[in-house]
Amino acid sequence: MYRFSVLKKFKGEKIAPFYFLYGEEEYLGRLVLEEIKAKLSNAEQWRVEKFDLKNLSWPEVIDVAQISQGLFVSRRLLLLSGEYRDKDEEKQKNKERKKSTGWSLNKPDKKAIEDYLAFPNPGSIISVLLVGEPKRIEGTSLYRFLKSFSPGKIVLLKLQAFPEEKKKWIHQEFRSRGKTIEEEALERMMELVGSDLNILYQEIEKITLFIGDKNKINIDDVNQIAGWMAEVDIWDLEEHLEKGEVAGCIKVLDRLLSQGIKEEYILHQLAKALKNIFLGKQLIQERKSQREVFKLVKPYLKENFSFYPQKLASFIAAVDGLSFAQLEAVFQSLKEADIALKQSGLPPEVVLENFFLQYGQIRGTT
Q1: What is the pLDDT of residue 71?
Q2: Whose CA is closest to 104, among 136, 150, 133?
């Protein structure tokens, strides 16, 4: 199994009484937890107890952790997991519950943790897995408080993997299944589904299943299998977005939603397309030619493809048609759409159609 750099930090380390794992790669968090369990002596005597971080106060967690091992009590690994939410939303929910939870600590929470870590129970390990943007999590009162303790008491671990690590991991995962994947196909797979390790793992499983007895995976295989059956529509959506064609975007959006494609996936594809445009503008500023820029941003699209001129033209139209200031406004609009999808309760088609209309106004095409 490929070992990510975050796992290598555990080599030779003693088990700590408290682990705080945070970041956007939940898959890595699960690997770290497996690493912790593998280091435990008499692992069969340890029982994993799972808790929802947002619905459990710290004094309650500490009460469970302090229960001594006995005839009918196993050693325990307490796993507190949660997804970091917007701070304003969390404050409102805390106000409704009239207590502080999870990553928003009050004085009783801090005292409970501090008292416990002074004399931790050797029969318990507390582990927190908080999924979200690292910088935002590092701004929470929980992170700042835990950071004040020595590494011997609390291990803080950011769950991140570099692009090259992910590529090596993908190669290793395919090899473990008796397959190999061409580099061009690997790049295409990551372009289609993104770089989240959870999603990539699912795609590896799916490609392995559908490829059958074939041992070598090429870009045509990935184009046929990876991502969603609606990938052609995703390409159409990207092209309409690049051309500033709002009506076309809304038409494709309706098709995608009717096929059951999740709004989160559509939002992810929109963000990726806009980031490509931003990168293209930066590269143009470095005096690279249009074809050089296109090759760097979309390396899987080769010049011998029949649709290459069409894709090049639509991409350059977006690079030339949007200023950096306009792109910043579009990114802000997309962020607002993301928040609305999570919090407003409005139908996805309403939220996303509104984004496309705002995009057209910013672009000047509506």
Answers
A1: 46
A2: 136
